[in-house]
Amino acid sequence: MSNKLYRELLAKVPKETSLFVDHAVHIGCFVYDELQKSEKLKEDFMKLMDIDEDRLSKLMSGVHNFTLKEISKIEVFFGIEIINLK
After folding, report:
1. Residue 45's closest CA among 29, 56, 30?
2. CA 5, CA 74: separation in Å to the nearest integer?
3. Which of 36, 39, 80, 86 has its CA 20 to 30 A from that of 52?
4. For residues 52 and 31, what is the distance between their CA atoms, to the nearest angstrom?
5. Using CA atoms, how far apart are residues 84 and 16, in angstroms rounded to an integer?
6. pTM (2 d.p.)
7. What's the CA angle centered on 63, arms 59 and 67, to 5 degrees?
8. Distance CA 18, CA 31 (A)
9. CA distance 48 to 45
């Protein structure tokens, strides 16, 4: 695909879709990076989220549609703030 065509197609993507993908990738990558630190951490996280390995993989894929409840659990588990209305 040519660079020009790519830019044209990208310009047609709705802003909310672009933001969704950015947020989902950011959260998924954060969770992935943190869980690489320890198998115990990964097990504790999966237990808190009530998910198995397959669901965890989807959660870290960058296309998962996180619920507010999931975001809240992630914030509490890692002691971080994901949602911060300015």
Report:
1. 56
2. 38
3. 80
4. 15
5. 18
6. 0.81
7. 60
8. 20
9. 5
pLDDT tens for the chain, 86 residues long, are 678 888 888 888 899 998 999 999 999 999 999 999 999 999 999 999 999 999 999 999 888 999 999 999 999 999 999 988 87
Task: Determine contact, residues 59/51, Cβ cutoff 8 Å.
Answer: yes
Give, rounded to a whole angstrom, the gap between the first and last alpha carbons of the chain: 38
Give the total residue count for the chain. Answer: 86
Neighbours of 45 (CB within 10 A): 20
CA distance 8 to 13: 9
